[in-house]
Amino acid sequence: SKLISLGHLEMTWRSRVHFYPVLVRVLHKSRLRYYGKPEKKVDMPYQAYFEVADSSGMMSMVLWNALCPEWYNSIKVGTVLLLEQYVIKPSYPFKTQPTPGDSQMKRFATTEISLNVRNPATKITIIPEEMVKPEWGLPEVKYRFITRSELDYLPHNHSCDVIGLVTFVGRAERARKRERREDFWLYRWAHAIDGTSDQPFILELFATSQPDVFEHILPMTYLVCTQMRVVRDLSRTSTIYLTTSNESQIFISGWHKGQPYTKDAKVQNFIQWTKTQSEASRMEKTVVGGYYPFPRPPNNFLKY
């Protein structure tokens, strides 16, 4: 069928009523958002953002309501989609923005593709990777992996991806989303090492829309976390850790096969390092559960 590029779509969408299909690759995937309220009568009040791209650049795609339970788990980072009967809208200005792996990629930030079950009923087709043709010019998924030795030199809020061998995982804890509200974030702390430093990655992992992964992070697992943000406490030079963002994806042993990051050079280097390690000696140094206060409180009350 006749296709339209994202770049052409952004330039001409106001003068169009009907849009040609678009062929895109998913580069980023946000957590699933529930926006239900007692006074609103929406059957499935869900929303999920994806960043999709073709040869012309990257644009946001929004999955709405009943399409979320049907498609959210099937659409992964790296998936190629053919989209038909969609709507183009001005983009939501306060949405979080992931950091693209390719810094040269053009971002179409003023518009977004809206997919819904009606008005019109969107048609989504997943193109198997073996059927994707080079002449389509779809960009590859690129990452920003860092090693633990590089982390000490990165600024606050820097976006990065990490891979490491889990040596500690804490119990699941809760934090209120807002004061005097009943909604909570669920999170846990983890340590992971990659052989480039004596210090581990300290990871604050919030439960994203991957409960089956979040609940099974265990010592000796190969852990990959994408779109993490550096948190650097400027008042304490030694306090630095990584926290999940809205677009973070977490993968553990058993989930890595077929993921685009397996081709990354730093991931390959990490795999080579793990082959030199003694599993028994590493197991002796692993820890599970317990109370983990971090960042650590000062030694005396006067410093508070």
CATH third-tier fold name of the largest domain: OB fold (Dihydrolipoamide Acetyltransferase, E2P)
Strand content: 25-35%
Separation, N- and C-terminal Cα atoms? 65 Å
Radius of gyration: 21 Å
Corresponding CATH superfamily of the largest domain: Nucleic acid-binding proteins
Order of helices and strands: HEEEEHEEEEHEEEEHEEEHHE
General form: globular
Structural descriptors:
304 residues, mainly beta, OB fold (Dihydrolipoamide Acetyltransferase, E2P), 8-stranded mixed beta sheet, 16 strands, NA-bd_OB-fold, RADX, RADX protein, single-stranded DNA binding
Write up what this structure looks like.
- The chain is built from six helices and 16 strands.
- It has helices at residues 6-12, 67-71, 148-151, 211-214, 265-274, 279-283; strands at residues 22-29, 33-34, 46-54, 57-64, 80-84, 87-90, 107-115, 123-127, 159-169, 173-176, 184-193, 201-206, 222-232, 240-244, 250-251, 287-288.
- It has two domains: 6-136, Beta Barrel (OB fold (Dihydrolipoamide Acetyltransferase, E2P)); 148-303, OB fold (Dihydrolipoamide Acetyltransferase, E2P) (Beta Barrel).
- It has 304 residues and is mainly beta.
- The chain starts with 5 loop residues before the first helix and ends in a 16-residue tail after the last strand.
- Helix content is 12%, strand content 33%.
- The protein is globular and about 65 Å long.
- The strands form two sheets. Strands 1, 2, 3, 4, 5, 6, 7 and 8 form an eight-stranded mixed beta sheet that branches. It has a five-stranded mixed beta barrel with strand order 9-11-12-14-13.
- This is RADX protein.
- InterPro entries: NA-bd_OB-fold, RADX.
- GO terms for molecular function: single-stranded DNA binding.
